[in-house]
Structures are given as C-alpha cells and as structure tokens.
C-alpha cells in the first residue's frame, strides 16, 4: 500500500478519541519467555480472556508468530476473533502498532511511528526490536490502509491520549526522555504531534506512574473519559511513591485549558496495591542479557486507568485488590452508556503493562 509523503493534518486527517466508533481491536499474542513467565502460558490465558471480553462488543484480530499460530487459533476459536500470522518481538500493539487517523469523509489512514523498544540502548526493554518495528506497516497492509511514516521519530501509542477535538495529553518523562528523540526539542516534538495527529494543544504532565518501565506512559496514569474530562490515577497517601507524581499532574491539569478553552474536569482513580511480583513469578521469567530483569523488590506499576474503550464496552483490569469494586463503580459512572467488564490483569501487569497497552483500536470509516 501507499506510503504518503504528506502529513495527516495537511490531508485533513486527525486522530479520533478512543470512544469513536471502531471497526475492530488489534492484539498480538504474548510469547517471549524473557518477558512472560512460564513460556508465556499464564499470559496467553489472560490474553485470551481479554480478547474474548472485547469480542462481545466488536471484532478482534490477533497477530501471532508462525510458531504459535496453531496454539493461538486453538485458544481463540470463537466468533468475532480472527487470528493472522504477524511476527513481532512482543505483544504490545498499542506501542508497536499504527495510530489510526480519520478524515471528515470517514476515510481511515495510519501513522506508522518509529519504534525502539521503549528506549533503545538507553534503557530499552529488549533487543532486537526490528519485528516490532514492522508491526504497524503489516497491520496497515492487511487492512489496505494507506500510511504515513515518521522515520527517525520514535513514539509509542501508549504515550499519548487525545480527545479527538484538538487536545493531546502526554508525559515529559516519556516524550522528552533522551532515549526517544534526543535530537528534537519540545517544540519540535510538538510539531510532529500537531502535523501527524492534527492536535492543536499538548498538555505535558511531568511524569507517569512510579516504576512504569515505559518511562511513564500516560495510558497507565491519565486518560480521557470525555471531551474536557480526564481520569487520573490518584493517591492521598504521602508515603506512596506516586503521591508527588499525581499531585504534580493535578496541578498541571487544574491550571490548564484544552484546545477549545475548556478547563479540565479531573476524576480520580485510586491506585491499587502496592503490588509486587513474587519470587516464584520472577523465577518463571527467562533471564536474557539486555531484557528487563524481574525482581520481587520492584513495585509493579498497576493501574485501573489502563483500560480500553470499545463499542459499548469498557475492558478494564482487575487485580484481586480491595479497590477493584470501587474502580469498576468509578468507570461505570463515567461511562453510563458502556458496560464495564473487568478482566484479571495481574499476569499482564507482570509483563510490564496492561489491557490498553496490549490493544489498538481501529476506528470505523464514517461520515463526520
Ligand atoms: O505499557 C506498555 N505500553 C508497554 C509495556 C512494555 C513492557 C515490556 N516488558
């Protein structure tokens, strides 16, 4: 398919909000044994539960390696789930996949960002990452969707959230990290976001959640729930390492307006835990030089904010935590038109992320 030399904004395309109608959700089968314990088997079961939860609301396509194709097909052999062979380095399609953009005629295109496994040789999570780098264009080829490419500009989908009305939220911890685009200033990074997502205003939260191995992806910390309204991971406990981060983000949001001049309504979402991997869980992960070490003393960056919006549904992680029921109530109140479905998220968290990081929604072609 065509790679376009223009920009989405110049061509009249913008990134829609996650609640816009969707054609399907993309996922990628988890299997690398130096990230997922026990050869990925517990994570695969958790992944199947997420795929099946989404498939109640809309089609799901799961990309899988040739080696795992037959196994994935056997586990995902249910209506509304399609399995296609896509080689990858890991399962985080939010970050390796394309960002879809749409125009007023309802045409959908894709932005294929550069990818360096969350930091390349300066704190990245594995090497090599060349197959992940190809995931975006493979998805767009399968869907016959034209693409924009940003060679040399690294960005992961989990590091941005938009309202579809001109405002983008991100964290400086990630986008300004010298392991992503050290050759660019903040203004130059903003320029790429403006031209490729057609946003007019960028809200920079200082940091994401403590110990998030993505360098503070916003999708684990703060997300849009409606235009002008965000949900922010929150703690009032001064001993919690997230206390300063949450309050700094609140300060930015409370003193900012969005692209339409609206002040932000900020809803608070309690942070579960503290959660840690057990020694047994860590022992189940293969030890490979250059891959993320797993250690029971490291606090896990668990967050209920890491949920996915699908057509009529909210797919959110639960953690077998006392906060689970409250988190579900908060989401249900914020999304009264959606059914909130919680899926166990601990196995996904042990791999370094959660449901939003493991999914990529594809907006539906539609007239504005
Ligand atoms: O949270 C994400 N968006 C990705 C997490 C990657 C973790 C790799 N171990």
Automatic annotation (TrEMBL):
The active site is at residue 357. InterPro entries: Agmatine_deiminase, Peptidyl-Arg-deiminase_porph. Keywords: Hydrolase, Polyamine biosynthesis. Pathway: Amine and polyamine biosynthesis; putrescine biosynthesis via agmatine pathway; N-carbamoylputrescine from agmatine: step 1/1. One of its GO terms (molecular function) is protein-arginine deiminase activity. Pfam families: PAD_porph. Its EC number is 3.5.3.12. Homodimer. Belongs to the agmatine deiminase family. Mediates the hydrolysis of agmatine into N-carbamoylputrescine in the arginine decarboxylase (ADC) pathway of putrescine biosynthesis, a basic polyamine. This is Agmatine deiminase. The lineage of its organism: Bacteria, Pseudomonadati, Pseudomonadota, Gammaproteobacteria, Pseudomonadales.
């Amino acid at each position: 398919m065509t790679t376009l030399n223009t920009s989405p904004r110049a061509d009249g395309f913008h990134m829609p909000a996650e609640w816009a109608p969707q054609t399907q959700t993309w996922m990628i089968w988890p299997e690398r044994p130096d990230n997922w314990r026990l050869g990925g088997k517990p994570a695969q079961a958790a992944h199947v539960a997420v795929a099946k939860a989404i498939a109640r609301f809309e089609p799901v396509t799961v990309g899988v390696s040739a080696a795992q194709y037959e196994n994935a097909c056997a586990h995902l052999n249910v209506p509304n789930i399609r399995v296609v062979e896509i080689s990858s380095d890991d399962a985080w399609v939010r970050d390796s996949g394309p960002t879809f953009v749409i125009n007023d005629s309802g045409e959908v295109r894709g932005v294929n960002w550069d990818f360096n496994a969350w930091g390349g040789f300066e704190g990245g999570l594995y090497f090599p990452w060349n197959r992940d780098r190809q995931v975006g264009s493979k998805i767009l080829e399968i869907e016959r969707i034209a693409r924009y490419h940003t060679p040399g500009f690294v960005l992961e989908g989990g590091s941005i959230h938009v309202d579809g009305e001109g405002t983008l939220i991100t964290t400086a911890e990630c986008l300004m990290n010298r392991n992503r685009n050290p050759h660019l200033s903040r203004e130059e990074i903003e320029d790429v976001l403006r031209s490729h997502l057609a946003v007019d205003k960028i809200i920079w939260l200082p940091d994401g959640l403590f110990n998030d191995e993505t360098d503070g992806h916003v999708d684990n910390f703060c997300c849009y729930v409606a235009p002008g309204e965000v949900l922010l991971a929150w703690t009032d406990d001064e001993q919690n390492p997230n206390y300063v981060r949450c309050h700094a983000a609140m300060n930015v949001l409370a003193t900012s307006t969005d692209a339409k001049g609206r002040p932000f309504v900020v809803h608070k979402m309690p942070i579960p835990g503290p959660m840690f991997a057990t020694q047994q869980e860590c022992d189940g992960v293969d030890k490979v030089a250059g891959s993320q070490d797993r250690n029971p003393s490291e606090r896990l960056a668990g967050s209920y904010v890491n949920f996915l919006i699908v057509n009529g549904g909210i797919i959110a992680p639960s953690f077998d935590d006392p906060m689970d029921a409250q988190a579900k109530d908060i989401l249900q109140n914020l999304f009264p038109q959606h059914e909130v479905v919680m899926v166990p998220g601990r196995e996904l968290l042990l791999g370094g992320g959660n449901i939003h990081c493991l999914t990529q929604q594809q907006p539906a072609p539609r007239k504005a």
